[in-house]
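Please, does this match?
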Amino acid sequence: MPTADQRLDQLEPIISEMLARLDETAAKVERVSAQLRQLTVTVTAAIAAQSDNIEYLLAKTTKLEQSQARLEQNQLALLKDMDQRFGQMDQRFGQMDQRFDQLFDYLKEKLK
């Protein structure tokens, strides 16, 4: 049977290999953690940029919608104004037509 020293001599290389593997694993974990931190910073920055872009686009869309509504209101007001003016012109032409009819009737009476 091996002595305590012999058993310790047998365990020492195994323990040394296990510690070396543990150091490798710790280094890998540290590298992955650093990459994960960098990825988190990058994703956070990208999300913030996208949020700013979306906020900008929403503000511009709102302004465009408001401008469109004002433009539509102005067009309606212009159309109403033109309609009123055409109505007034139509009345004047009607009055002129009546006067011409009266003048024509008057001339017919005078020429009889």
Q: What stands out?
A: The two ends are 160 Å apart (CA to CA). The chain has a mean pLDDT of 95. The longest helix spans residues 4-111. The CA atoms of residues 60 and 66 lie 10 Å apart.
